[in-house]
Amino acid sequence: MSDASVTGEKHGLRTVDRRGLLVGGLALLSGIQAGSGAETAGLKTFAAAKGVRFGGAVQARDLAASAAYAGLVAQECAVITAENDMKWPALQPEPDRRTPEAADRIVAFARAHGLAVRGHTLVWGQDGRMPKWFEAMARSGGPAGARALEAQMVAHIRDLAGRYREAIVSWDVVNETLEARDGRGDGLRRSVLLDVFGPSWIDVAFRTARDAAPDATLVYNDYGTEQAKPWKVQKRTMVLRFLEALKSRGVPVQAFGVQAHLAGDEAFDARSFATFLREIASLGLAIEVTELDVDDHTWPADIGERDRRGAELIERFLDVCLAERATTTVVTWGLGDALSYQNRPGWRKVRSDGSTAPARPLPFDAEWRRKPMWHAMARAFQNAPAR
Ligand code: G3I
Question: What predicted TM-score, i.e. pTM, was given to this entire model?
Answer without folding.
Answer: 0.91
